[in-house]
Amino acid sequence: MTAPFVPQIALYRNWLAEQRGLSFANYEEMRQWSVRDLDGFWRSIWDYYDLQSPTPFAAVIAERKMPGAVWFPGAQVNYARQVFRHVEAADAAGLPAIVSSGEDGKLDATSWPELRRKAAALALHLKEKGIKPGDRIAAYLPNIPETIIAFLASTSIGAVWSVCAPDMAAPAVIDRFKQIEPKVLIACDAVTYAGRRHDRKDVVAELRRSLPTVEHVILHSEAAPAAPDALLADIVARTGAAIDAFEPAWLPFDHPLWIVYSSGTTGLPKPIVHGHGGIVIVVLALLGLHNDLGCSYHENSFGERYHWYSSTGWIMWNSQVGGLLSGTTCCIFDGSPGGTKDKPDWTTLWRFVAQSKATFFGAGAAFFANCAKAEIDLTAAGDLSRLRCLGSTGSPLSADTQAWFNDRFAALSKINGSKAQADIWWANISGGTDFAGAFIGGNRELPQTPGAMQCRLLGAAVEAFSEQARAVIDEVGELVCTEPMPSMPLRFWNDKGDARYRASYFETYPDNFDGSGRGPVWRHGDWLKVNPDGSCIIYGRSDATINRHGLRMGTSELYSAIEALPEVLDSLVVDLEYLGRDSYMPLFVVLREGTAFDAAMQARINKAIEAGLSRRFLPNEIFAVAEIPRTLSGKKQELPIKKLLLGQPVEKVINKEAMANPACLDWYLAFARDYLARTAA
């Protein structure tokens, strides 16, 4: 398959004209309709994708408010049921559901009937173990077909899914899973990454000890387990009439689907609950209309194959699996995207894209930047002629990186004859774990500017707010969303009165914040500029949350790992991802008197971060300081120090009268001057 074929958004626009009598002068006019007429827009998505329910819904949106909007009351759905609608047609067309590979380069395919049968076998096993709708299933698994099978099995019976990647250390996993009290743990006892086999038996044993609510353990293992646990491979190999006849349960539209985690600057990771219906309808619109992904067995997009590189710990894993909702073949890779430490190889994923015949390839912006820095040779990766689109997210993609790839693909098109690659289309998106979707993204019909995203998405009432809480154009402001979307969280798990949920997104702009009578507005935590032509630029996080290559982590989790060391009395970390720069994360530590700040001490700090969180969150540099700046109430002043290091004047970012230790600022001001001089050079 090669472009051009009819863009998905054009098919939808034509459908609106034929079925609804709606026409628009341009895309922005259509988007304005979609955020003003929420009922009309989301009803059109339901009808356009032919979503089904055995019972009618009473309204599209019962109450137009944030938080707490109720969508499609009365409707019944199931994520797995929507996936399995495609089994017969896709299989008849000879197309697989999943194409997978790991670092060994071996390519495997999972057929649509096999996907359904294995998920049904595991679903019935879970029901036999007494798992009921609403029970939580925790998974500690890599990005392999078995993880998708386990997810579909869980959701098909109404259980609530939650997964952590096996590169996460036990304390970080326990901090997440202990909040949701799972009944089942599905875990791997080993994982391969960057050429090394990492044993995870000790982590699984620690999870058992720390999660007393777990009644049943299922192991993904290449060896017979010592404990009397069930083996995932044995369960999904079962066959029989009951498995063949199994169908996913019909569930209320807002029945909990999964729990994902997004960390703030304080407390434990936030366990965010999303619903079946909200995720299904938003993901279909995002992947279809804005990522231009078509159904693999439809004539207009025949042979479509979707790959977005991700670990299971990133929300992009959820997005990758979402391709199955529209009958699209998903290509998944488990392992390091850049080879090993000793032998870096940034063509690894490109070879997988060629072998799997992917038509869409997405990854974090940092991946593309690393490829450009390594000056990779795309012609050495194999036949990339089917690739028609690149996707990027996780952090801002620089104009230089995008232009570098544009030049390489233009040259490649002259070799392989791909018209799509002569001016390769980028579906650059910005969204979040928080609502498992995107606010800003692509549109295959709009012009492209390297370093910018093409548009605000349909249904996303996104604005850049000034300091006066007014929507601004061509100025950097706070990214806000002024209208509800179906995939916004149902709630946080065990969050009494939604107190933490409200504080996380609606505290900055609460009810009637501007005196206009409007309700609360969602503050996302990113800097945004909306250009006059409607394109957008994200400038990084506006809060103190760490964003390393698309994975967010609360500073409090990092402090817990560091300050457990007896030598570390205090610490502060900031992430300077901004204006498309690479993420730079300095760590400042106060050491116990008499402790030498030498290479061994720095290694101990890094080891504590790796053991408590993950190698992904190791700082770029560590500095020993006399004090950590704090407010009179004792709060670490992360944001002011971050703003200093981004070049903002001290008088605008710090109120010394509100500080407990203003004298310590002199050191940070000197450090900021030195850092800014180095980066300018």
From TrEMBL:
Keywords: ATP-binding, Ligase, Nucleotide-binding
Keyword presence, Ligase: yes
EC code(s) of this entry: 6.2.1.16
Acetyl-coenzyme A synthetase N-terminal domain span: 27-80
The keyword ATP-binding is annotated on this UniProt entry: yes
InterPro entries, alphabetized: Acac_CoA_synth, ACAS_N, AMP-bd_C_sf, AMP-binding_CS, AMP-dep_synth/lig_dom, ANL_N_sf
Pfam (any one): ACAS_N
UniProt-listed GO biological process terms: lipid metabolic process
Top EC group: ligase
NCBIfam families: ac_ac_CoA_syn (TIGR01217), PRK03584.1 (NF002937)
Family according to the record: Belongs to the ATP-dependent AMP-binding enzyme family.
Name of the protein this chain belongs to: Acetoacetate--CoA ligase
Taxonomic placement: Bacteria, Pseudomonadati, Pseudomonadota, Alphaproteobacteria, Hyphomicrobiales
